[in-house]
Amino acid sequence: MVQGSAIQQGTLGNGKLVTLHKAISLVPTHPLALELVESGEFSSERIARPIVHLLRSHHLISDPTISRLVPSSDANELVTRVGYPYGSDPDWIAFVRGALKAYPQPASGSLENSSPTVVVVSSGPHWHFNHFAHVAAEDADDAMLAGYEGMVNNVVSSLPNDANLHVVVHATNPVADACSADASQRPSTSSTHEPNFIPAPLRYNYHLFPLYDGLWRAAIERYGTRATRVEMLDDGHMMGKRLEAKKGPAKGDCLHFCIPALYETSRILMQHIL
């Protein structure tokens, strides 16, 4: 019933080709799509437009903003991203603004006209110091937390104030206990910035994930009641009860769950929120 198409692709620093913007649409000739049109709740024009856009914005903010918000360990250098071509990530907030302007919706009427634009955001696991140049290992925790807090505040303050916009922040994926580590194990010098010399839990800042989620909760609470609805799918604690469903240290991956497993649970919770 659905079909996908790549709108924008890019190449990471390791040469890997990734899809930065993908659209998913209904197949207009599918019987279920035709049934939606015949019901009068959706127009054929709406059926022809994508129903989902996936924008791969690794850190949710632009490169210049990263350089401004993430503290550098080198007084003579600004922080830059490692492995990401400069300016490669889509400007997702600009895309949302454009979509709201291009397709304004009345406050009531058919399902097509009364359904809000829903935006789901998440970025926690990509905020680890090996993604940033000029952040030393011994400064990593403070730099990542300062940068992440700045990112969260930047995102929340940049959201369009629109009654047709519903933003859901998805909590950061919890990490399996077998991959946990005390921050005291962190190397004492920046000479060990090479990933192979740093244990994975510290290399990827796993221990900061709960703090990242706390920054989102605080920002959403400060955001208060506005036209745009902003809330959090805070399933991290629940997902943390099923860490045996992770791929695990034997496969060198303590972050991602096996598929489909718990991702289906998150989907059900998301439907409940909406």
Structural summary, described in words:
The chain is an alpha/beta fold and 274 residues long. The protein folds into two domains: 1-56, no CATH class; 58-273, Rossmann fold. The protein is 32% helix and 19% strand. It has ten helices and ten strands. β9 (246-248) and β10 form a beta hairpin. It starts with a strand and ends with a helix.
CATH class of the largest domain: Alpha Beta
Strand count, sense and barrel status of the largest sheet are: 3 strands, antiparallel
Task: Give the CA-based shape.
Answer: globular
Low-confidence runs of at least 5 consecutive residues: 181-198
CATH architecture of the largest domain: 3-Layer(aba) Sandwich
Helix content: 25-40%
Beginning-to-end CA distance, first to last residue:
22 Å
How many domains comprise the coordinates?
2
